[in-house]
Amino acid sequence: MILWVLQGGVVLVGITALVLTFLIGKSYGILFLGMTFVFVGVQMLRWGHSRLVSCPLCHGKLMHGSQCHKHREASRRRPFGYISSLFVDVALFGRFNCMYCGTPFRLKR
């Protein structure tokens, strides 16, 4: 989840740097290129970590998207997809439903 939030921040800083490159000066272009490399690095870390997280019941990869049909109990918060909605559910409510088998899980406190 920390990587998901970090990646969102990197995207916001990168977009801001790109806009400032065209409005103010080329010095922000270096920041944009740096954020591009950081984004790729965080994306690779997220991909590697997502392969390790699976549902305890059905063993579906929760944070790694697949073309499997989603269960009718899977929650999806608009405008997010299933995986981002899982992060939002965990962060705000401390629970989530498996998107493949529909089993509800609560996080231990």
Could you walk me through the main structural features you see in this protein, from its secondary elements to its overall organization?
With 109 residues, the chain is mainly alpha-helical. It has three helices and two strands, in the order αααββ. The protein has helices spanning 2-23, 27-50, 82-93; strands at residues 95-97, 104-106. The protein has a two-stranded antiparallel ribbon. The protein is elongated and about 55 Å long.
Overall 3D shape: elongated
Mean pLDDT: 85
Q: How many H/I helices?
A: 3
Q: Main sheet: which strands, in order across? A: 1-2
Summarize the structure.
The chain is mostly helical. Helices cover 53% and strands 6% of the residues. It has helices spanning 2-23, 27-50, 82-93; strands at 95-97, 104-106.
List keywords for this structure.
single chain, 109 residues, mainly alpha, two-stranded antiparallel ribbon, 2 strands, 6% strand
List the helices and strands and how they pair.
Blueprint: H1 2-23, H2 27-50, H3 82-93, E1 95-97, E2 104-106
Antiparallel strand pairs: 1-2
